[in-house]
């Protein structure tokens, strides 16, 4: 549903208050009119008793003939009172009815107080009541009928209804007004959020929304928005770090390529010199190409675009496969590869092999010539450990916490010369994160171990 929330809620308030005020008004109106009619009934029965008493007096006959109006005048509001007295045969002994009203005559009940009071409407449209009773006149039974027209009642009830309608309308209007005022005030924190959101820029994602002064209903929204901002900030920082690193890492090899090529082009060279240049260029270009591949893989892994296809892999087989693959490279450095341990690991085969290959190539590069590079399993409750260990100079403790950062090389000078990208371990870290595990380095005086920890099951 579109439109203004304030308007909708205010309208709802108007309707609710109007309906409840109308209900209350109706109830009060009925209670009031009912009470008035009940009092009228009591008064009418009282009048009936008065006439009965009058008829029972000594000079009732005389009164009836000489001053018939007296029967009516004893009644308050007498101009609206009607009195009729009939003898046993139904002959009229008295009929005071100046406006010639036609009204029903209630039948007599066995007990006087049970005689019903009938309601009728006068010729002028006013409500009226009639009651009937018996008496004795000079020893003869007579019937008395007393009626009353409440000419003022209609106007009074109409006034009362009018007032109730006015009160309902006023209450509804007031409610609508108050509701809209309250909403305008109540929605202030939302406007504050909107104002804050309007200020969010790529470089200012770290500013958090103030949740202290916001009402509790908005707390979940603010918490969610702040979490979103934090994630965006994190992603943005990573991304800008990524592109800064990329530019930085690309600059040197590209400049090298450019410089070498420009120098070569400055004068005529022999075919042998061109060949040498091209070979050197190819080496540099291969490194750049590997760097681009690695960066792409890291970017995709961080975006969670890479979904590991987990399967149960026999560790023994994986180690043997790796050893076979790196045998030549190890031999070149007079190294021996030793595999130990068995069991299974739940992992994506391609990713696991990539991680192991990165660790093995590092180990082979840093191992002491003539030593043994070991592929082993470890034991840690809840985890499946795969370990690659080599002997060699210990890693500076200051480097240890940074090894898994991209482009981090402990020995920068040697790294760049050796064609390394400094991305191998960060790819290992990303692969382990994709598996819900982690990678660790343990360096002692003589050995360095890189450990892959896969969550067991
Ligand atoms: N087994 C090891 N012994 C000693 N130092 C190591 C070992 N493995 C890694 N390192 C250090 O960690 C750094 C980062 O390794 P990483 O694999 O990320 O990059 P790289 O090996 O330099 O480059 P690339 O993997 O692209 O060839 C290395 O430069 C090296 O200094
Ligand atoms: Mg490496």
Task: Explain how this protein is built.
21% of the residues are buried. This protein has a five-stranded antiparallel sheet with strand order 2-1-5-4-3. Strands 7-9-10-12-11 form a five-stranded mixed sheet. It has three domains: 5-169, Beta-Lactamase, CATH 3.30.450; 217-300; 307-455, Histidine kinase-like ATPase, C-terminal domain (Heat Shock Protein 90), CATH 3.30.565.10. The protein has helices at 5-55, 60-66, 69-73, 151-186, 188-199, 219-265, 271-302, 315-332, 349-366, 412-417, 424-434; strands at residues 81-87, 92-96, 118-121, 127-137, 140-149, 310-314, 336-339, 344-348, 372-380, 383-391, 438-443, 447-455. It contains eleven helices and twelve strands. The model has no long low-confidence stretch (mean pLDDT 89). It is of the alpha+beta class. It binds adenosine-5'-triphosphate and magnesium ion (MG). Magnesium ion (MG) is lined by residues 358, 361-362, 420, 424. Magnesium ion (MG) binds next to helix 9.
